[in-house]
Write a structure and sequence with these properties.
The complex is a heterotrimer of chains A (about 290), B (about 325) and C (about 325). Chain A has twelve helices and no strands. Chain A has about 290 residues and is mainly α. In chain A, α4 packs parallel to α12 and α10 runs parallel beside α11. Chain B has an eight-stranded mixed beta sheet, sandwiched between helices. In chain B, strands 2-1-4-5 form a four-stranded antiparallel beta sheet, covered by helices on one side. In chain B, β11 and β12 form a beta hairpin. In chain B, α3 packs across α4. Chain C starts with a helix and ends in a 7-residue tail after the last helix. The chains are: A mainly alpha (about 290), B alpha/beta (about 325), C mainly alpha (about 325). At the A-C interface, α5, α6, α10 and α12 of A face α1, α7, α8, α9 and α13 of C.
């Protein structure tokens, strides 16, 4: 896979990217994570084109154990579990990345403003971050979903809205240190407007740890969504791993496969995200010890 | 007989990117009462030498040859028992980076007691008495024992490490870059106090630095290192007043000297050698204005220029002509 | 102002202020949610009997403007009255009070166990860095951390309760027999085993990882080199100096998790039918039981704020670098 990546990179013109890949590809665990993640992403993208049974079709015999015809069996409604698990990856990946994306967007914006302008803005923001960190996110999400409806979009947005503080913190710290660097000072002296300095000079250099953190947050978002779906509060129209586990748990003593395999899928996906995120953390921030926020 | 004698010491490091020859055939002596200064840029092998003497080389270091003889004992071949009676006790190290040289969550006194009790069987009370005495010698108030490291200024931290090195009344003190992180005035104070201590207590000191003025101020004898090789060796007078080596000369010329009135600072062209893939022959040849083809082929041997003054170069006479 | 006293006072006041802010924040979030709570309680009556609905509205004070409701709520809070739950027909403080101990029993036990086991294993692994046991442990921990806690719980229950029939499937007490004294304690412990196991396994990895990284980091610190140069024994340097420095990050995590001591076990409680706050939270959210919800959030916020406060104090003693200004 490394040579495959090398081949792609020889076409790309960015030396920074090439350098990055050289460092990244040395980490075996990071490569493993990337491999798994790519595989899952590929599967989820290709799902509509693969020879899978319709995940919504209630046509098969119920409670069939895993077999060649139904590799992961069928559920209580007679749906093919294998197909549902594969389709479920689409839901999870979308949730993961959009929630992490929203979190990164808000966190980066607020964090860089706080770090750059300092003073009162910074103080207020730090207070807000502290308060946010005190809120038991899972329950607030639960509540909001319960009240405003279990649309999958709400889930994504809410998770993003509640997890931005960790990104803001990282961004703020980064901006604080980069702000003092020569090339930034030079730009300011030359009269470049503050916003431009932020966008063109500071953020591109500061963004790296946020990227690493976002990968880890995506994993977190997937787990949160799984938990919500497991409680029955997820979107009933979406194929979600958590929901499949929820539906299957009443039958778990006799028909274990319904709840078992989606869990495996969650674990593998989250694992791959952790591996990639951890490796990125190691590269961008050699001192990082925590498993993301 | 010299107090410490190092003969043909060669040390290499095994890294994931290849081998690094940190020291090549280094030999020198340290007599009682001498202050021997090791001058060199970073990567020249100075700290490796200190760690080798103290026996704290990292696990990927390999001593390929040589002897380190202290009081007739070869430290590289001695038993653990013998070593434990010497290391930290008869030879003490004032480590690099004194800013973080002690544990931040333990009191200073506590840590110094641990050091003292490693070598002596005494009660904590008696140990503290000795410690406070040494702290005072290092110009610190004795209540430093109750403080934490981060509560002290840079200069004070360095003095703590000096005091610590004096705890067991060692014969030799190795000071590794004692001035890093200190501002100029404090640097001067520390060095001056060290010199005083040496005079009063009859210590023998090995001082390691990349700063010419530090070495010039402190040393009675100088060894100039570059790329793991000894390039010049001799009394401080000889090496600084009449250097017989191109590297030393260029180093001195690149150093601002208020007294000489010289206006220009002439940097040595080029950059320090890549130790993973050093230049063939004389390590300095890519940057040396006197280099000729011979220099690229074979490493020049050390030659005795005058009594006790050694230099590693093929064209010493030519250089002398240049001056 | 410096010193321990003023520092504590300051942190204490900050904590109280934050709690206050959270209460107000929560009040507004909850009360601005769509869905008429009266309809939820009244159910079918709402359609047939507008008078009854109006009556209910008056009783719960839902006809007053929001600012008045806030003030009423705050004044009641000062008296220790957290309101009255529509659904349970009980005082909120009573409902919570009945369940809180059950939850704390679970969370405290597993929190302490995760800490002890995670830190020990982390230290163990750090000392054998790179060896097979270290790599295997790290991998297992990573796997554990990737598993959703509820899935882990279900699997454990499946295996231990159903398959091996070693432990009860649900509940905190055996329903058929009524024990007292020592037998009661044993009974609860027996019921507690699986939920605690689930929670501990779920939290273990993070302590493992942080501790291992911390120990490794400390091992490369300058002071270790200093002590080596002075001939101190490796063992002593490790136990006295490295460990003592390395313990700080895990303690920070412990402090953070302490804040979630009331809400963290919710999913596990639901799986195992443990009569704690978990089910309560879920139902309250689902049925828009506003007073209960506010009470629950309040209690949770207070516990988080308190936990932060406690952690700060502990840190003050553990790390002399903490600035008391």
């Amino acid at each position: 896979m490394r040579t495959f990546g090398n081949r792609i990179l020889s076409k790309v013109k960015s030396p920074a990217l090439v350098q990055f890949w050289r460092i990244y590809s040395r980490d075996k665990l990071g490569m493993l994570g990337l491999l798994i993640l790519s595989g899952i992403t590929l599967l989820s993208l290709l799902a509509p084109y693969l020879p899978l049974k319709d995940p919504f079709a209630i046509v098969y015999r119920r409670f069939l154990p895993p077999s060649f015809e139904h590799p992961l069996g069928t559920d209580h409604l007679g749906r093919d579990v294998f197909s549902r698990v594969i389709w479920g990856s689409r839901t999870s990946l979308v949730i993961g990345f959009i929630a992490a994306g929203i979190s990164a967007l808000i966190g980066t914006t607020l964090g860089s403003i706080a770090g750059y302008y300092g003073g009162l803005i910074d103080d207020i923001l730090t207070r807000i971050i502290d308060i946010f960190l005190m809120i038991p996110a899972f329950f607030l999400i639960l509540f909001i979903i319960a009240v405003y409806g279990s649309n999958i979009i709400y889930v994504m947005i809410v998770i993003g809205l509640l997890t931005w503080p960790s990104n803001a913190r990282i961004m703020r710290a980064q901006v604080l240190s980069i702000r003092e660097r020569e090339f930034v000072q030079a730009a300011i002296l030359m009269g470049v407007s503050n916003i431009k300095v932020l966008i063109k000079h500071i953020i591109p250099n500061a963004i790296h740890p946020v990227i690493a953190n976002s990968i880890l947050q995506a994993a977190g978002a997937i787990i949160i969504e799984a938990g919500i779906s497991y409680l029955g509060l997820g979107d009933p129209n979406a194929v979600s791993w958590g929901r499949i586990i929820y539906e299957g748990q009443s039958y778990i003593t006799s028909y274990w496969w319904i709840s078992f395999f989606p869990g495996v899928a969650i674990a593998i996906t989250v694992l791959s995200l952790y591996l990639v995120g951890e490796t990125l953390s190691k590269i961008f921030n050699p001192k990082s010890m925590a498993l993301g926020g | 007989m010299p107090l410490l004698e190092v003969r043909n010491l060669s040390i290499k490091y095994r890294t994931p990117n290849g081998e690094v020859k940190a020291l090549n055939n280094l030999s020198f002596t340290l007599d009682k009462g001498e202050i021997l200064g090791f001058l060199g840029e970073s990567g020249s092998g100075k700290s490796t030498l200190a760690y080798a003497i103290m026996g704290i080389l990292p696990s990927n270091a390999k001593i390929t040859s040589g002897q380190i003889i202290f009081n007739g004992v070869d430290l590289l071949k001695a038993s653990e028992r013998k070593l434990s009676r010497i290391r930290g006790k008869r030879i003490a190290l004032i480590p690099q980076n004194s800013m973080s040289a002690l544990s931040p969550v333990h009191k200073i006194g506590d840590q110094m007691v641990d050091v003292l009790r490693t070598h002596m069987r005494i009660s904590t009370k008696r140990a503290l008495r000795i410690i406070k005495k040494k702290l005072r010698i290092a110009r610190l108030s004795s209540d430093v024992t109750e403080k934490y490291f981060h509560e002290l200024s840079g200069g004070m931290r360095q003095r703590v490490m000096i005091a610590m090195s004096l705890l067991t009344n060692p014969d030799i003190i190795i000071a590794d870059e004692p001035t890093t992180g200190l501002d100029v005035i404090v640097q001067y104070q520390i060095l001056r106090e060290l010199k005083e201590l040496q005079r009063k207590l009859g210590l023998s000191i090995i001082i390691i630095s990349h700063d010419v003025s530090v070495i010039a101020y402190m040393s009675t004898k100088v060894a100039v290192l570059y790329g793991g090789y000894l390039f010049e060796y001799g009394s401080s007078e000889e090496v600084f007043r009449s250097s017989k080596n191109p590297y030393t000369m260029l180093l001195l010329r690149s150093h601002p000297d208020v007294k000489s009135g010289r206006r220009e600072i002439m940097e040595i062209p080029g950059s320090p050698p890549n130790m993973l893939n050093p230049p063939p022959g004389c390590v300095f040849h890519p940057r040396c204005p006197f280099a000729e083809d011979l220099c690229k082929e074979k490493v020049p041997p050390l030659r005795e220029v005058s009594d006790g003054h050694l230099s590693r170069c093929y064209f010493i006479e030519k250089i002398m002509g240049e001056r | 102002m410096d010193g321990i006293g003023p520092y504590l006072l300051r942190r204490g006041i900050q904590t109280i202020l934050t709690i206050f802010l959270i209460i107000i924040l929560n009040f507004f979030i909850i009360n601005f949610a769509p869905g008429d709570p009266v309809r939820v309680i009244a159910g079918e009556f709402a359609f047939s009997n507008p008078e009854y609905v109006e009556n209910l509205r008056k009783r719960w004070g839902l006809d007053k403007p929001i600012t008045e409701r806030l003030i009423i709520y705050l004044t009641n809070l000062m008296k220790g009255d957290m309101g009255f739950s529509f659904r349970y027909m009980q005082k909120v403080s009573q409902i919570i009070g009945e369940r809180i101990l059950a939850t704390l029993l679970l969370t405290f036990t597993s929190l302490i166990l995760s800490f002890i086991l995670g830190v020990s294993l982390g230290v163990y692994s750090a000392r054998r860095h790179g060896k097979t046991i270290d790599i295997s442990l790290s991998f297992i921990m990573l796997l554990l951390y990737s598993m959703p806690v509820f899935w882990l719980g279900i699997l454990l229950m499946l295996f231990f309760s159903v398959h091996l029939k070693l432990f009860p499937i649900a509940g905190m007490f055996s329903s058929r027999v009524s024990y007292t004294g020592f037998m009661l304690v044993l009974d609860v412990l027996w019921h507690m085993f699986l939920p605690v196991l689930t929670l501990t396994l779920a939290n273990l990895p993070i302590y493992y990882k942080i501790t291992k990284a911390s120990v490794l980091e400390q091992s490369n610190e300058d002071y270790v080199r200093t002590f080596k140069a002075y001939g101190l024994r490796r063992d002593k340097v490790f136990k006295k100096y490295i460990l003592r420095n390395a313990i700080l990050p895990p303690v920070t995590i412990f402090g953070l998790q302490l804040g979630f001591v009331l809400s963290g076990a919710a999913l596990v409680e639901i799986i195992y039918g443990w009569p704690g706050m978990g089910r309560l939270l879920l139902d309250a959210a689902f049925y828009r039981d506003y007073p209960l919800l506010m009470g629950l959030y309040l209690v949770t916020a207070v516990s988080v704020a308190l936990a932060n406060f406690l952690t700060d104090i502990t840190y003050m003693f553990l790390d002399p670098r903490v600035k008391l200004t």
